Amino acid sequence: MRRAPTAILISGRGSNMASLIEAARDPGFPARIVLVLSNRPDAAGLSVARAAGIPAAVLDHGPYRGDRAAHEAAIDEALRGAGAAFVCLAGYMRRLTPLLVGRWAGRMLNIHPSLLPAFPGLHTHARALAAGVKLHGCTVHLVTETVDAGPILAQAAVPVLPGDTEETLAARVLACEHILYPAALANVAGGTGAAALQPPAAALFNPLPLRPATT
Ligand code: GAR
Q: Is 125 an active-site residue?
């Protein structure tokens, strides 16, 4: 089986990156991780990737201040140099311009901590709590020019429980992210030809038991 070479862009902790690396350790997984790239030199995920034997590099956006195109051209060069067929944004907290998005159209995935189209942008868990929603979750989608608005590939929902704080809700969603992202990548990378680039049937699942309300 040809396993699709896949690069991961991070900015920080890298727990979703770690879940993708872990899934790709299985020789039956249809993607293999060829590069981790961070725009921040202090991203904790870098050492996690290196410890797992994955090449990890930094392309600090700082020196490119005022020239996003040059920074993105450098990222693109690194991705191509690694032979990547797919790119997974995993907590990559920098807005991308049409330059990079266009070059990787249909082959760049992102994970977002909400059930899009609800709560695009930042502080999704606090906003979900403030809105009083009873279901929250995460979304894997294709990256397009509009932030957090590309075609949805897969979603996972979790309950919002009485007494939830931003932290408890974030932890419940993150546990789902770690299941959903490898599943979505496998779905996209495992397909063949143009069909693989169509949004596959959404994998809506709730892997956590629903507990009865205690208050
Ligand atoms: C994750 O919750 C991811 O969904 C979110 O950042 C976190 C990164 O954590 N991404 C976004 O908010 C992108 N809009 P991680 O570095 O441990 O994977």
A: no
